[in-house]
Amino acid sequence: MKEGIFKPLEFPNGLQIKNRLVMAPMATKSSFENGMVTLDELEYYKRRSENLGAVITSAAKVEEQGSVPGSISIATERHVANLTKLASTIHKNGTKAIMQLFHVGRSQTSADSKGYQAVSASAISSGKPGAEVPRSLSQEEVLAMIDKFKTATIRAIKAGFDGVEIHGANTYLIQQFFSPHSNQREDRWGGNLNKRSRFPIEIIRAVKEAVKEYADRPFAIGFRITMEERYERGITFDDSIYLLNKIKKEGIDYIHLSLDDYKQSSKRELDNTISILQRTIAAIGSNIPIIGVGNVHDSHDVRNIFKQGASLVAVGRQLIIDPDWAWKIKNDQEKLTRTVLLEQDKENLKIPDKMWEYMRSRPGWLPMKSFDEQ
């Protein structure tokens, strides 16, 4: 079974990765204010990429204003040289580098953006504490936003990345256009399910155009999706299956589910205990690579995800705790896996200061112990 984990995979476009483990995209909170990648971030990725098939970077903003503090930027040409260093760092270990592209939409606050008003599909607040009412994008601005994803893809190609992942999950802008909670437009970008699907589909088409025009090598396109929302008027599982079937017809290379736990079932349909991962694969088929993710700690979790039909497994928090996790599985040393983050190991684990403080501000997200707690 260990051999299955470390078996190569070829995406539909021809890109090959050396095994079935990928690093999940996780915010480091550590880029410079101008979106340039820091040396701390390069060390963080270098320390974790060696034994993986691919690394999906933390989300890179396609527009200067459309992010949260500490995000990577791919919004201008001046960022290309800096991003080339990131791609090269990941490549040093024979691992493929995939850049995640996003815009936060209404998830941004004016305090984060020096007074810039957040934008979204409609002028509707998320309802979360402290949430602000965004400005609705005009039709011209919607088209310009789609083009920014295309331009960002061109920059990712120039910087040497092996693919891009379109971030259509985690309540960010693309999800906001798809959700009936946040999108109450009455034009071609909102209304019925088909119209609400138009924004993500047009972004995929624009990204594909960029790859066709500029890539001189196999270059993967992935899409990350949150399958349902808890809002009463939010995205349902069936809504997402509708969108995924449309996405499949566009011919992308993989689908990446955004899950807190790969075993989790519906948060809306409480009588349905089948996992979201298993239901998704059953509904759309396994003829496109699916990445399973969420609360993966050991090889047992990896195999359980494969049993549900996924082709790849994304690992996040466990790789923060133990960058050598995949090596230990491959070399029969799994019993030595780290399970707790100790403050004295922070330097060896190459965790940036801002990322460390952010994790400490979220008790329970990771098992951590400071000097005082040991």
Question: In a nutshell, what does this entry contain?
Answer:
It contains 14 helices and 16 strands. It is an alpha/beta fold. The protein has a single domain (2-337), classed as Alpha-Beta Barrel (TIM Barrel).
Which secondary-structure class do the elements indicate?
Answer: alpha/beta
In whole angstroms, the N-to-C terminal distance is 37 Å
In CATH, the topology is named TIM Barrel
Question: Helix segment count?
Answer: 14
| CATH architecture annotation | Alpha-Beta Barrel
- Total number of strands: 16
Protein architecture, described:
The chain has 14 helices and 16 strands. It is an alpha/beta fold and 374 residues long. The strands form four sheets. An eight-stranded parallel beta barrel has the order 3-4-7-10-11-12-13-14, surrounded by four helices. A two-stranded antiparallel ribbon has the order 1-2. It is globular, with a radius of gyration of 20 Å.
